[in-house]
């Protein structure tokens, strides 16, 4: 499949004019790169995703320093509306909170920062890693509100009004955070046995 994709990309690239290539890049450069707005529903798109061509770059939403891999989560939706074909939250409420460290954290803790564009007066979602916790806004002693949805999803509100501003968020490693690599080998072997046993029954 990868070879077929590469072949198709190469063929399309050869057929694409310089003008078309410039138009595509201009469209990528104009995409909204601010943190996503926090909404009460999520509607899966039926539009086919277009892949980037060789040499093209999409503008990032988050700038992460130092680079941090792994999985990130956002807001959780738990109720499917088959008529409207969208996900919603089944009567979930929000809880407000104040990060303890306000972005400082302990010098000995592992941490990283994420910077994105925020719009004052608008609740926006934060992409949170599973093994780190949100520690606050770097240098932000006030002017922000924070809330959580009870399922690990966090959103932030920059108070006031005006144009978009760059905001840097800090994350520190959870003391009890576990990664897949931390799971004992014996547990992995037990999971593998159960999987193979169930597979044999089919």
Report the end-to-end length measured between terminal Cα atoms.
29 Å
Query: Major sheet: order of its strands?
Result: 2-7-13-10
Return the string of H and E elements.
HHEEEEEEEEEEEEEH
Structural domain count: 2
Task: Write down the overall geometry.
Answer: globular
Mean pLDDT: 76
Number-wise, the strands total 13
Low-confidence segments, given as residue ranges, are: 179-184
Helix content: 10-25%
Q: For the CA atoms, what is the radius of gyration?
A: 21 Å
- Largest sheet data: 4 strands, antiparallel
Beta fraction = 25-35%
Number of helical elements: 3
Give me the secondary-structure category. alpha+beta
Give the secondary structure arrangement, pairings included.
Blueprint: H1 2-15, H2 18-29, E1 41-42, E2 63-65, E3 72-73, E4 79-81, E5 86-88, E6 95-96, E7 111-118, E8 123-126, E9 128-129, E10 132-137, E11 144-148, E12 154-158, E13 165-173, H3 185-201
Antiparallel strand pairs: 1-5, 2-7, 3-9, 4-5, 6-11, 7-13, 8-12, 10-13, 11-12
């Amino acid at each position: 499949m990868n070879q077929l994709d590469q072949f198709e990309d190469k063929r399309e690239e050869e057929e694409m004019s310089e003008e078309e290539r410039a138009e595509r890049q201009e469209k990528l450069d104009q995409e909204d790169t601010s943190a996503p707005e926090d909404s009460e529903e999520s509607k899966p798109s039926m539009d086919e995703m277009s892949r980037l061509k060789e040499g093209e770059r999409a503008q990032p939403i988050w700038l992460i320093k130092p680079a941090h891999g792994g999985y990130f989560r956002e807001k959780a939706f738990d109720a499917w509306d088959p008529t409207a074909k969208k996900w919603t939250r089944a009567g979930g409420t929000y809880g407000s909170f104040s990060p303890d460290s306000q972005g400082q954290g302990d010098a000995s803790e592992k941490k990283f920062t994420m910077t994105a564009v925020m719009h004052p007066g608008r609740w926006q979602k934060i992409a949170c890693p599973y093994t780190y916790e949100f520690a606050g806004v770097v240098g932000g002693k006030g002017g922000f509100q924070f809330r959580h949805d009870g399922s690990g999803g966090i959103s932030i509100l920059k108070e006031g009004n005006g144009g978009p501003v760059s905001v840097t968020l800090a994350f520190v490693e959870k003391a009890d955070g576990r990664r897949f690599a931390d799971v004992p080998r014996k547990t992995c072997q037990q999971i593998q046995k159960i999987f193979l046993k169930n597979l044999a029954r089919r």
